Amino acid sequence: MRVRRVEGRRASDIRELRRFSAIVEFIPALKLGVAVLSNADDGNPASYCDYALQLLTPIAAKAAARAQAPVEDSERYCGVYRARTAT
What we know:
Elements: E1 2-6, E2 10-17, E3 20-27, E4 32-38, H1 45-68
Antiparallel strand pairs: 1-2, 2-3, 3-4
C-alpha cells in the first residue's frame, strides 16, 4: 500500500496485488472521490484516476460554490399558502 498527496489537497491509496491493481483518491475539500479497479497488473489505474479527477474536479468545484451561495430574498416567500379553488 502506498499513500500519496498531490498538491497538498489530494490523498490516495494504491494497492497492487498479483494480477490486480486499484487506486482510490479523494479531494476532501470538494467531497469528491474516485476509485479505479483493474483486473490486470499491467494497467495503470493512477492515470485513469488522474483523468477522471481532471474531468470531475471543475464540476464538483462549481457545485460546491453553488451550494455555499446564500439564498437571497427567501424570507418573502415564507408564509401560508392556500389553493384557489372554484366552488
